[in-house]
Every structure is written in C-alpha cells, then in structure tokens.
Design brief:
One of its GO terms (molecular function) is oxidoreductase activity. It is built from seven helices and seven strands. It is α/β, with parallel strands linked by helices. It has a single domain, classed as Rossmann fold (3-Layer(aba) Sandwich). α3 packs parallel to α4 and α4 packs parallel to α6. The longest helix is centred in the middle third of the chain and has 30 residues. The protein is globular, with a radius of gyration of 17 Å. The protein starts with 7 loop residues before the first strand and ends in an 8-residue tail after the last strand. Bound molecules: NADP nicotinamide-adenine-dinucleotide phosphate.
C-alpha cells in the first residue's frame, strides 16, 4: 500500500543518501504531499546536482532550502524562508535526517570528534525542532486538523539508529565501536523522548526511526539495503504513525527497538 503523507514536509540533509531518496519517493508518490522542503547545506554546489534535477522536475512541489543544521543563523533563515511559503503557516512533518559519522575506537576518538558529531546529530535536531515549533503547532491546531495524532496532522521524526540502543550494545559493539556516533544518537533518542512528552499536549507526535543498514556514503557498499527499499519501508512506517507511537524507536519495518 502506498504511504499516505499529505500537507507539508521538511527533510534535512536531502542532497544525498536517505534524505535524497526520501524527497524522491515523496515527490513521485501517487498521492504526494502539497509542499516538500528539501534542506541542504549547499543547494548550488556539486553535491546537490541530483537534488536540483529532482526539484527541477517537480517545480511546484519541491523547494530547495539552504540549511546547515549546525548553524543557528542558517536554521533561523531557513525557518523564515519556509515559513513565508507555508500554507496557513503550518508544517505537518519535520524529518531530522541530516547526520554525520566519524567512525572511531576509543583510541581514535577525542574531544573534537565527539563535539562535531554531537553538534550535528543531537544539537541540530533540537535547534531545528525548536525553530520550526510554531509551524508544527499551527499544523496541529488548524480548525480542519484531525484530532488523532499522525504525520498528516503534525509530527517530528528523528532519524536514529539501532546501534544507539543501549540494550543492544553488547550485540552491536564489536567491530563497530563508533563512539561519537553511538553516543550522539543515544542522546538524540533521549531528545526524542523529552520532545515526545513535551509536545504531545500540542498534538505533535515525536518519535525516532532506524532506517536499517543502508547503502549510502555513511552505510557503505556492504550494507544489505538499498536506499529505495529502506525509504519505502520508512515512509510506510511514518504514514501509519498514531498516538501509540509517541516517543518510540521503530525500525524501517515498523518493529520496536529497545532504548
Ligand atoms: N546509512 C545507514 O546505514 C544508516 C543506518 C542507521 C541510521 N542512519 C541515519 O540515516 C540518516 C541519513 O544517513 P545517510 O546514510 O543518508 O548518510 P549520508 O549518505 O552520509 O548523508 C548524510 C546527509 O546529511 C547531510 N548533512 C550532514 N551534516 C549536515 C549539516 N550540518 N547540515 C545539513 N546537512 C548535513 C549531508 O549533507 P552534505 O552532502 O552537505 O554533507 C547528507 O545530505 C542519518 O541520520 C544517519 O545517522 C543511516
């Protein structure tokens, strides 16, 4: 069944990997959202060529937004640009996808690596959600809005990972220590839990989603999943979110992952 995601959607880090495929499948869906905002650090640069071509093909649907999620001025400006284009000032779905991984063992990891990854993977989604909160609240409280929580009403999806699961660490650690990445995403999980508690009174559904191990620059060529498969599953999961998923961590097939 095709994923039903309507209204307006913002995806961060959308010029390659999972982010680019999210924008592609959303825009090529039989029932696409009304507006897709594709956040990208350098929309005019060489790394955004495919995204520009996609936006060119779906001019009425996709708006490219210059957005560096580690830079408050960039986030504020992006919110101004997106806000001016939103219908009724409402953003229905924010997908915090942008992230970095500096793989490192304990010996290879220092303050610089920890701080850089934490800034992108944890602080970025926090600042983004805060800045776009007025638009998410508007979406949740529109007179015509459904009373149930869903991605069509108002939702924040934080793209997390299985390897941030503290319970699963004994199974996933060996061969892939990745200190900065695991720690930053475990903190993102707690951010998700806090935001979920905080924002449910506003009708905004917040959850975290593991896209699987995916063939991208980050996942590497040995990953079992293509971006197409991962994103198809991911969009189906997002499409079926309801109140019972507030503050959960699910994988791309909808299965729960322990914190
Ligand atoms: N691939 C996997 O196996 C896997 C598994 C579990 C979870 N995930 C999660 O899935 C999400 C997408 O991963 P991916 O595999 O698609 O990674 P990727 O191929 O490395 O792409 C990362 C994206 O994030 C963007 N980005 C990084 N820092 C940014 C910043 N400061 N501001 C704006 N954009 C920024 C990159 O933009 P630039 O081109 O400008 O660098 C790029 O578009 C991430 O949250 C990742 O942690 C991936």
């Amino acid at each position: 069944m095709a994923a039903k995601i309507s209204g307006s959607v913002l995806v961060t880090g959308s010029n390659r990997g999972i982010g680019l495929e999210l924008v592609r499948q959303l825009s090529e869906s039989l029932c696409p959202p009304n507006q897709i905002f594709a956040g990208c650090r350098d929309p005019n640069g060489p790394k955004a060529k495919e995204l520009r071509e996609l936006a060119q093909k779906h001019q009425r649907l996709i708006t490219l937004v210059c957005l560096d999620t580690t830079n408050q001025a960039s986030i504020t400006e992006a919110a101004r640009v997106v806000g001016a284009k939103l219908k009724d000032g409402s953003l229905n779905l924010l997908i915090n996808n942008a992230a970095v991984n500096i793989p490192g063992s304990l010996a290879e990891t220092g303050e610089k690596q920890m701080m850089e990854v934490f800034q992108t993977n944890t602080v970025g989604p926090m600042l983004l959600t805060k800045e776009f909160l007025p638009y998410l609240r508007n979406a949740a409280s529109q007179p015509g809005a459904q009373s149930e929580m869903s991605c069509r009403r108002s939702a924040v999806v934080n793209v997390s990972t299985l390897i941030a699961s503290i319970e699963k660490c004994p199974e996933t650690f060996h061969g892939a220590p990745m200190y900065p990445y695991r720690v930053s995403k475990a903190a993102l999980n707690m951010l998700t839990r806090c935001l979920a508690e905080d924002l449910k009174k506003d009708g905004i559904l917040v959850m975290a989603l593991h896209p699987g191990w995916v063939k991208t620059d980050m996942g590497g060529p040995e990953a079992p999943l293509s971006t197409e498969e991962s994103v198809k599953g991911t969009l189906n999961v997002i499409s079926s979110l309801s109140e019972k998923h507030v503050g959960t961590l699910l994988d791309w097939e909808g299965k729960g992952i322990p914190w």
